[in-house]
């Protein structure tokens, strides 16, 4: 069982706002930054959100991240068909001394 | 542009050894921490190891501690993952990931295309 909990799936219609959750604990999300990655099948992951809420260059502003306490969220506004893929959250865990990933959320655009 | 090119993967038998290499270009390699992250077939991402920019600090996942060793040669702009006593459960695509700071923790910011390691008898 992963240290970070993500729902296995989420779905929405084109144009909608979709929010993905990531739940952790005091030793990881509670004390450290959260990162979000997007991964299409057969390709390497791509950093989508850096340090809780920062978008790397080239990431559309439709994607936004937030953190509160021991939980974090990734919001996708104006959902598009090309957003249909897997999303992972990650954070450093001070107790385990390693990065922990969530199991990923598969987003489906209806 | 940042480029990370992994190599060294392949088919190995349980108990054997293998060394993965990640050749870096397009950035000041010696200034950034580096990670290895793996992904078993059909599964999610699993972080493996991280090394600081100078190579003086490393951390490993419990699943590989004592069997895998991360190292780097800044003069060659190369990251390594030496894998000993591999097991079937180590079968995965191994990605190298560049951090965006010198120290640890440094989450993977840029990723290579991955190298497939298959452990099977």
State the main characteristics.
heterodimer, A: mainly beta, 3-stranded antiparallel beta sheet, globular, B: 121 residues, mainly beta, 11 strands, 48% strand
Write up what this structure looks like:
The complex is a heterodimer of chains A (110) and B (121). Chain A has no helices and nine strands. Chain A is mainly β. In chain A, strands 1, 3, 4, 7, 8 and 9 form a six-stranded mixed beta sheet that branches. Chain B has 121 residues and is an all-beta fold. Chain B contains no helices and eleven strands. In chain B, strands 2, 4, 5, 6, 9, 10 and 11 form a seven-stranded mixed beta sheet that branches. The mean pLDDT of chain B is 97. Chains A and B meet through strand 3, strand 7 and strand 8 of A and strand 5 and strand 10 of B.
The percentage helix of chain B is under 10%
* N- to C-terminal distance of chain B: 40 Å
The count of DSSP E runs of length 2 or more, i.e. the number of strands of chain B, is 11
Mean pLDDT of chain A: 96
> Could you give the order of the helices and strands of chain B?
EEEEEEEEEEE
Strand content range of chain A: 35-45%
Shape of chain B: globular
Derived structural class of chain B: mainly beta
Unreliable stretches of chain A: none
Query: What is the overall pLDDT average of chain B?
Result: 97
Q: What's the Cα radius of gyration of chain B?
A: 13 Å
β-strand amount of chain B: over 45%
Largest interface: A-B, 25 and 22 residues
Element pattern of chain A in H and E: EEEEEEEEE
| SS content category of chain A | mainly beta
Helical content of chain A stands at under 10%
What's the topology here?
The complex is a heterodimer of chains A (110) and B (121).
Chain A: E1 9-12, E2 18-23, E3 34-39, E4 46-49, E5 63-68, E6 71-76, E7 86-93, E8 98-101, E9 105-109
Parallel strand pairs in A: 1-9
Antiparallel strand pairs in A: 2-6, 3-4, 3-7, 5-6, 7-8, 7-9
Chain B: E1 3-7, E2 10-12, E3 18-25, E4 34-39, E5 45-51, E6 58-60, E7 68-73, E8 78-83, E9 92-98, E10 110-111, E11 115-119
Parallel strand pairs in B: 2-11
Antiparallel strand pairs in B: 1-3, 3-8, 4-5, 4-9, 5-6, 7-8, 9-10, 9-11
